[in-house]
Design a protein that fits this description.
mainly alpha; 363 residues; two-stranded antiparallel sheet; disordered C terminus; 11 strands; 3-stranded antiparallel β-sheet; 52% helix
């Protein structure tokens, strides 16, 4: 059983790698579409007069302003269609594989047939998710374009991004980040749907929530890590939010020999701490950097966090929550309610800038 739990948790890392691969394929596919529309938009921008630009800002119509809106609309539609197809493929590529893998690893007999669940990504259909993402991006691009016209900026730079920022300040980069989150959600939904279907077929009822041990794990998922629950009794299954990497596995209780990964010091939107720092003129290993490694499979996030540096804990929790945590006034799991919603500082009883703690919330 130790070996089974070890294999189930290790699959989590490989599946996240699969999500990154699918995102690369999506980016390559969208690059062709982007090049086509950016070339057309570029030629149109060169021919637009000040009157055309003003009318575009005011949502009025000239031939060129209408043509620009049409190009932006069609660009967003192609993004929607590609994202929809790729999300569906991402889900399907892992659902049946995970369903079979869990049954093979667990080596238990199938006791009943279970129908495939509806393909819902965080409660929405794939079509609705793709359409909503495309609509939001279309509005974002519209605002960016109007901003460029109003301030006499190069609209192409606003769409593509500048070389100085490696295109990370452009609308295309913003869209691709959103799409990457949707694709990872599709993968992890397919993974967990396949896992849960397999457990239902085998009559397994005791499940365990498994988060990742790294700085990018949100406090909601950290509080749920290691939680054991009965199949069907919990309010939701992962993914709970964009880029959620959580997974459910069969609960085997406390085991010996099973391990799980502790990942490198990297979180979305933050540059990893350097591996080495200079101290007293000497190059030494950074004591605040988290290196990849393994810990016991029994270690939960609430057990793992105290193993990390005080600097990391403060960055993860925030200064006020960190103070309460270090003083032993609140445990990690008590920073959120039973549904994973994080309590505000006011709800935790922290008053004014002096951080006076009164604890009105009953733990």
């Amino acid at each position: 059983m130790n070996d089974i739990q070890h294999k189930l948790i290790r699959r989590q890392v490989r599946l996240l790698g699969h999500a990154k691969l699918l995102n690369k394929e999506f980016s390559d596919e969208m690059q062709l579409v982007d090049d086509k529309y950016l070339a057309r938009i570029g030629r149109l921008l060169d021919s637009m007069t000040d009157r055309d630009k003003l009318f575009f800002q005011q949502n009025k119509k000239t031939t060129r302003a209408a043509r620009l809106r049409e190009l932006l609309d069609n660009w967003a539609r192609e993004y929607r269609d590609i994202l929809k197809a790729d999300m569906s493929t991402a889900y399907d590529s892992v659902y049946e594989v995970e369903r079979k893998a869990v049954k093979q690893i667990s080596d238990k007999e199938v006791v009943k047939e279970v129908q495939k669940p509806p393909k819902l990504i965080m409660g929405l259909t794939v079509s609705a998710t793709a359409a909503t993402s495309a609509l939001r991006w279309r509005k974002y691009v519209d605002n960016k374009t109007k901003q460029g016209f109003a301030n006499n900026y190069d609209v192409r730079d606003l769409l593509v991004g500048t070389a100085r920022s490696r295109q990370k300040d452009g609308a295309v980069y913003t869209r691709n980040r959103s799409a990457a989150a949707h694709l990872q959600n599709a993968v992890m939904t397919g993974v967990n749907d396949g896992t849960i279907t397999a457990y239902q077929e085998m009559g397994v009822s005791d499940l365990k929530w498994v988060a990742t041990l790294d700085g990018s794990t949100c406090m909601q998922c950290a509080s749920l890590d290691g939680k054991v629950f009965k199949l069907g009794e919990y309010f939701a299954y992962p993914p709970l939010h964009p880029n959620c990497a959580c997974k459910v596995v069969q609960d085997f209780g406390e085991t010996e020999g099973a391990t799980r990964g502790s990942f490198p010091d990297k979180a979305p939107g933050r540059t990893p701490r350097p591996k080495y720092i200079m101290k007293d003129g000497k190059k030494i290993k950074n004591p605040d950097r988290i290196e990849a490694g393994t810990v016991s499979g029994n270690v939960k996030f609430k057990d793992w966090l105290p193993m990390q540096s005080d600097d990391f804990q403060k960055e993860y929790l925030g200064p006020t929550r960190h103070k309460l945590y270090k003083e032993g006034k609140i445990k990690l799991e008590n920073f959120t309610n039973k549904y994973g919603r994080m309590y505000t500082l006011e709800e935790l009883g922290v008053q004014n800038s002096q951080s006076v703690f009164t604890s009105p919330v009953k733990f």
